[in-house]
Amino acid sequence: MKFLSDQLAPGVRPREAVSWAMYDFANSGYTTVVVTAVFNAYFVGVVAAGHSWATFAWTMSLAVSYAATILLGPLIGTYADLYGCKKRLLLFTTIGCVLFTASLALVGRGDIWLGIVLVALSNLFFSLGENLAGAFLPDIARPESLGRLSGWGWSVGYLGGLVSLAASLAWVSHAQVAGHGGDAFVPVCMLITAVIFALASLPAFLFLRERSTVQPPAAGDSIPWRAAFTQFGHSLRLLRSFPDLRRFLWCIVCYQAGVQTVVALAAIYAEQVLKFETADTIKLILLVNITAAAGAAAFGQVQDRLGHARTLAITLFGWLLAIGLAWASTGPGMFWIAANVVGICLGASQSAGRALVGYFSPAERRAEFFGLWGVAVKLASILGPVSYGLVSWASGGEHRLAMLITGAFFIAGLAVLRSVDVARGRCRALVPAPILS
After folding, report:
1. Which CATH architecture has domain 14-205+239-428?
2. pTM for the whole thing?
3. Residue 437: per-residue pLDDT
């Protein structure tokens, strides 16, 4: 693993980096199967019986979880920094997501509120865990290798999505041959996803080390969560002195609104507009995960030389191309092309965004600033999908119009990205910033 050792911070062993990447492998199955490929279309078409409000109900269930993440994510990140407990909190969020994902197997035809509650809870625990896992990246990677290691982690993550999808496809194919419908095979897919998540996350808890450079407050100094609330208020004020990080967080809100819309609604668009069957949709997302892994790995190799911001700009133009192809698709052929463009851009844009947040974050505030990154992504995850849901509902189910409007988010992201000075942002991150003021 010589190629990996050269990218790691002093004192970090390759098995730690592999274990960290395995967490991406583990949690990607959740987003791929539940949010992107299987349960979303099942919720709209079966649980909600395809009503005109069904897509909006799906997007609102995600929006509730993201709103909760916006409130809790920075506080949990601050608490993790203050008390050096990222790993312990990551274990808690992982257990929560696994249990609620398995509980989705209980959702059947007409169980709308049960589905909404379980989706919101599972996605909340996933989102909080994603923030905490991302905060380990600057601990294990050299500053000049953040992009490569982030891209490698994303590519391993997409392989995890492939494994969960492939296992689900095998079960779906078997169930369809036996004459069963979505009521029978989708619940089992939820159990498969939960088991793979639990097993693949184990290396992170066995080998990933907690590295805290902060002396935690004395036991009698303050109530832990009160200290976290106080520190979060300080961090919001301090963000004014990190102008490029602040601008980039707004950039993330813009372009991630488009990304999260496509991730949450691609399968619904394919089934409602192009009449894909569940097995066809899973095959499509399988291929997208392959191209996403390739995109994350390929761009991860070059973004440290090309520049994180320039890499991101290239991918945002690619997203605009994919949106145009999807909108113009009248059959599966062009939509498959659009989906593969999405795959390449998805892996690259996610990797570049995470690396740039790490590049702009001072060492002693990493979990906290990755919590703010989580706020930006989750705010985008409300703004984009809910906008899509509202447009499709108001237009009587016109998904093509909703997809076209999604392109505006990527245009806005490009506009804000132009104001980010990467060199200045990195210089500011190298100036020590106290945890408490």
Report:
1. Up-down Bundle (1.20)
2. 0.77
3. 45
